[in-house]
Amino acid sequence: MIVQENASDHTSGVDASLVSTYNDRIRPLLDAIDKLRNLNVMQEGIQLPTIVVVGDQSSGKSSVLESLAGISLPRGDGICTRVPLVIRLQNHAQSDSLLQLEYLTKVVSTDESNVAIAINLATDEIAGNGKGISHTPLTLVVKKNGVPDLTMIDLPGITRVPVHGQPEDIYEQISDIIMEFIKPEESIILNVLSATVDFPTCESIRMSQLVDKTGERTLAVVTKSDKAPDGLHEKVMADDVKIGLGYVCVRNRIGDESYEEARMKETKLFQAHPLLKKIDKSMVGVPVLAKRLVQIQANIISKCLPDIVKKINMKLNANVSELNNLPQKLSSVAEAITTFMRIVGLSRESLKKLLVRGEFDEYPDDKSMHCTARVAELLDKFSEEIKISSDNNSFLMTEIEVLEETKAIALPNFLPRSAFQALLHLKIKAMAEIPANFIAKVWDYVETVVIAVVVHHCEKYPQFQSHMTVAARNLISSVKEKSTERVLEIVEMEKLAGYTCDPQYLAEWKKHLVYSGNLNQNSSVINFGFFGNINVSHLMNYPIGIKSEAFDLKCRITAYWEVVIKRMVDCIALQLLLSIQRFANGEMEAEIVNEVMDMKEGGIERLLIEMPSVALKRERLNKSIILLKESRAVVAKIMDKIAVSDD
C-alpha cells in the first residue's frame, strides 16, 4: 500500500537546484545501468559502475543512506543489513512517493511508514531468519520528489566478533561479500567512517585499501561529526588513509528529527561550531555529499559505457561462436539419416585419401595421420627385425648338431633333406611371432587414424560418434584377426618345404660355398666371405668332413633364408595393402551403416535425442545471447541520446 505522508515531515534535505542541475543529465545514464543490472548482465562477467557503501558496524551507514533517500531504514542491534541492498533513488515529480522492493523475481510495493518492516521481511525470506547473511541482492526503488538520482549498494556492516547468534565466521562471510563488490575497477567505494574513531583502525579502510591502494575510487563520508569535533579538521586534511575522492563530513539525524530539521541543524553546526566551521564548506553536509555522489556517478558511468559496449559485443560474439560450434540438433528421422550418410561418406573419402591414395591435404601438419608413410615405416622395421632374428650358437655348431641328429645309414656325400628342414624350422620358430606382432601394430595404428577421422567428421554430431567409433573398432578387430590368420598361414607355408624357383638361391649358395676350402687353414680366425672373419677354435676337434657338410648346410640355409624373408615380406605387405584397401573402400562404411540402422530400442530415432549436457549448454547460451542483445540495445540507445545532446 502506498501512503501519502506529510511533506513537511519527510522532505529530503537535498536542494531542488541540485536535483534540477544534475538529475536530468544523470537519469538516462543511471536508467541504462539499472536496466543492465536488472538484466543480470554482471552474471556474464561484465562489471557495471556502482557506488558501494561500506563501513564498520555502527559507523552510521544507515543514517547516511536515510538522509540521502529521505526514508527510514531498518535499525537495531547487530547487523541490520544482511544482504546487498541496492538502493535506487529516482527524483519523482509527483508529491506522492512510490516505493517498492524487488527480490527473488518478486516485486512488493510498500510505503515510507512500512519500508523498514518490508525490508526486514524480504531479508528474512532471502537470508533466512536469524543473523545469517546472503549474497543474493535486494533492490529498494525509491521514487520521491527531491531525492538525487543515485543507485547505491549498501553492504553489511563489518564486525569481527560474532554476537547475538551470528555465525562464527561472520567476519569472513561479510568480507567475502564486500570484496566481491569493491574489487571491480568500475566500483566507487563510499567508505562511511565515524568521527569518533581513528580512521587507520577502521576495518572498512583496510579492505578498501586492499583493492584501491591509491584511493582514486574511494570517497569517505565522516559521520557523527558533532560527537567528536576535536581534531576532525586536521584528520580530514591530513588524509592519512589516502582517500582519493576526498571527504564529506555530515551530522547524523537524531531521534524524531525530520529530515528538513536535521539538515538545518547540520548547516548551523558546520557554520557556527568553533572547530567544525574550520572545515571547508565543500566538504560538509548531506547536500554536498549528494552532489558529489551524483557527479562521481555520472563520470564513472560515462567513462565505463564504451568499455561496457565492447565487453558486451565480445561476450556476445563468443557466445554466438560457441553456440554455432555446439553439436547440431536433428529435428527428424529423415534429417538424421541424411546427416548420417553424409558423415559416413565424408569419413570414407578421408580414409581413402589417407590409407590408400596417400593424400594428406586434410591433415598437412599432423604427420601421425600420413598413413601410407607411417605404414611403410612399420614394414621397414618388420623387415629388419626378421633379418636379425637368428640363433645364438657359435659358428656352425647348430648345423653340426642338426647333422648329428639326422644322420642315417646312407651314402656319406649326401646332405640329409631332414637336416635342411630342421634348420628351416628352427629359423622360422625364432621369428614366428614377429609377423603377427607387425600386423597388430599396423591395425592398432589404423584404428587410431580411423577414430580420429570419425571424431572429426562427427564433431557437431556426438550422437553419431559413439555408434560410428564402436562399429569402426569392431570391424578393425575383425579385420586384424583375419589378417593375423593369413599371416600365420604364410609362416606355416614356409615350414612345409624348402622351395623356390628363384635362381638367386643357387647363385648365393655357390658364392658362399667358395669359402669352404678355408676350413683347411690351420688358423683360429678364418675369413668366410659373407660370414666375415670367424674364430673357429671351437671347431678344431671336429673332422674336416663334418665341418665341410656343416658349412655347406649353412650356405644353403643362408641363401634360402634370404629368399624366404623377401617372399614373406612381399606377401605380408601385399596382403596388408589388400585388407586396408577393402576396409577403406567399403567394409567400414557397411559396418557403420549396419551398426546405426540396426540399433535396438528406438533405432535411428534415438539419434534425435540431444545429450542433456549439450541441451543445457544450448539453453544457457541462448538465454545469454538474448540477454546480451537486450543489454547492447539498452546501451546503444543511451549512447545515441548522449551523442544527440552533445550535438
TrEMBL record:
Every GED domain range: 550-643
Domain of life: Eukaryota
Keywords: GTP-binding, Motor protein, Nucleotide-binding
GO molecular function annotations of the record: GTP binding; GTPase activity; microtubule binding
GO cellular component term of the entry, any: microtubule
Keyword Cytoplasm: no
Dynamin-type G domain mapped to chain residues: 45-306
UniProt cross-references to Gene3D superfamilies, sorted A to Z: Dynamin, middle domain, P-loop containing nucleotide triphosphate hydrolases
Protein name: Vacuolar sorting protein VPS1, dynamin
